C-alpha cells in the first residue's frame, strides 16, 4: 500500500442541529505523483462533507482534508455512537482503495408534540377523543397520560395510560370522558378539560380540549312534556270539581180506564254549526313570486289574500363556477374547486390557480369539490388519516370516483365530524395536463407539479402528503392544453 492515513481525532461528539470537524491526514508513501478522491460512506454519509474532495500529493509529501459532520435535529439522527468511514481512491492505482474508519457520537435530545383529535367532542353520557403523541426526538420516549379539569366535572378513562414511542413514531391514547352529572333537561354545557403528557424529570406537556355535554332530552321535548303535564292537571281539576245538576223530570200521570198516556220525549239531535262567512284562503302556489287572486275576483265579497314564499338560494358549487367561466370562454380549459374546512364548512369555489383552504390556521381540509371544463372530465381519490397505521402513513379511500363529465361536480372526502381529514388527493383529466401545488401542515408551499392526461400511462396528479402526522391545509389547481 502506498498511502498512510490518520484521523484526528478518531472519535468525536456532536449535537443534532450543529456540526463538528475531524481532520484526515494522509501521506503518499509511493514513488509516483498520485491524486486521491474522497467519498464518505456509512449511515451518516448524507450528513458528511469532505473539503477538498480531491487531493494531489507528490511522493513522500503529506496533506490534510477536513471532514464536517452536521446531523439534523430530527429522529433520523440516532443518539449514541455511529461508525463512519471515508473511501480514498487513488487515481494511479484505483484498485488500492483505503477506507479509514472513525466513530461519531450523536448526543440525545427529546422533543414531543401532542394534540387532541378532534379538539372538541360532543355527547350526552360520554365523549371519546384521541390523544396523538409524536416522538420528534432521537431517543425512545416514555411518558404517562392523565386528565384533569376545573371543578372535577369529568371522569377520565385512558388506554393506554403509559406509552413508549420509538424516535420518529407516534402513539394514540384512547380517552373516554364521562360527566359526573347528567343533564336531563336544558341547554348543552361546555366543559373544558386537559390531558397531560408527563415524562420523567421533565416539564409536563398539557393539551387542552372541550367536551360539550348535551341534555338527555332536548329543550323542545321538555317544553312539550311540561305543557302536556299542565293540561293533564288542569283537566283533572275540572273533572273532579265539576258537579252536574241532576233533577227529576218525572210527572204524575192520570190513569183512565186502565190506560196510561205518556208524552213522547223531545228530539236530542244536535244543531249544526253555522257556515263560514268567508272562503278560506287557498294554499300558496309553487312559484315564490305568485300572488293569490283578489280585488274583485268572483265568488266572495272581500279582497284576496297575498302569499309570498322565499326560496332558499341554491348553493354555489365548483360546477356552477366552472360553467360561468365556460359561458365566457367556450374554447378554453378551466378547473374550479372548493374546500370543506374543519370547523368552518364549505368555502366559496375558486378557479384556475387560486388558493383554496387556509394558511397559518393549522386547520385540515375534510372534503373537496371540483369540476372541470374542456378536458374530457375528471376522476379523483383521496388519501386520509388512519388511526390504525403502523408505517406512519395514512390510507387511500378504497375506490376512485367515476369519470365525472365536464361541467359536473366531483366530490371526495367526507364532511362528517367523526370521519378522518384529508392528507392528500389524486386526480386526472381526459385531455391536456393538470398542474398543482400544495400547502401541508408545518410546511411551506411545495413546487408546482404537472401531469398529462389519464391516457398517458394512467397519469395522475397527487396533491398533499402521505405522512400520517400531517394534513392538507390549502392547494392550487390548473389545467392547460
Automatic annotation (TrEMBL):
GO terms for molecular function: hydrolase activity. Residues 259-312 are annotated as: Disordered. Keywords: Hydrolase, Membrane, Transmembrane, Transmembrane helix. Pfam families: ChW. Residues 267-277 have a biased composition (Pro residues). The keyword Transmembrane applies. The keyword Membrane applies. Residues 294-305 have a biased composition (Gly residues). The chain crosses the membrane at residues 220-242. InterPro entries: ChW. Residues 278-293 have a biased composition (Low complexity). This is Hydrolase. It comes from Streptomyces hyaluromycini.
